[in-house]
Amino acid sequence: MMRKCLQEGMSPDFIREIRSCYSGESEKGCGECTVCFNKAVALLNCGIYTPDVFDTPITAAHFRKAFERIGDNPEDYTSDYVSEVKSAYRHLREIKK
């Protein structure tokens, strides 16, 4: 969906500023909840992630937790979702280099 918005001409800055976090305490998005993680995955895969999008930037530790959740309950996740998460992790590692 994010990719389609970008293709339709929506500003990356506007997309990054959309708040979808479960936390009522965070200003930008906590960076810890599942919704923030999924937003980070989409941002990374679209090439528009920046660490300042969330109160707590997404790190490799977030991905390790996600891979653990996926491994514990593989039937809860589609193969497309798993591929998206793996791809985003590769993008994050490239950013960190």
| Mean residue pLDDT | 93
Distance between the termini: 28 Å
What's the alpha carbon Rg, rounded to whole Å?
13 Å
Number of discrete helical segments: 5
Helix content: 55-70%
Task: Give the strand tally.
Answer: 0
Strand fraction equals under 5%
Note down, in words, how this protein is organized.
With 97 residues, this protein is mostly helical. The protein has five helices and no strands. It has helices spanning 2-7, 12-17, 34-46, 60-72, 79-96. The longest helix is centred in the last third of the chain and has 18 residues, at 79-96. It is globular and about 35 Å long. It starts with a helix and ends with a helix. The model has no long low-confidence stretch (mean pLDDT 93).
Summarize, please.
With 97 residues, the protein is an all-alpha fold. The chain has helices at 2-7, 12-17, 34-46, 60-72, 79-96.
Layout of strands and helices, then pairs:
Layout: H1 2-7, H2 12-17, H3 34-46, H4 60-72, H5 79-96
Helix pairs in contact: 3-5, 4-5
Features:
single chain, 97 residues, mainly alpha, 0% strand, globular
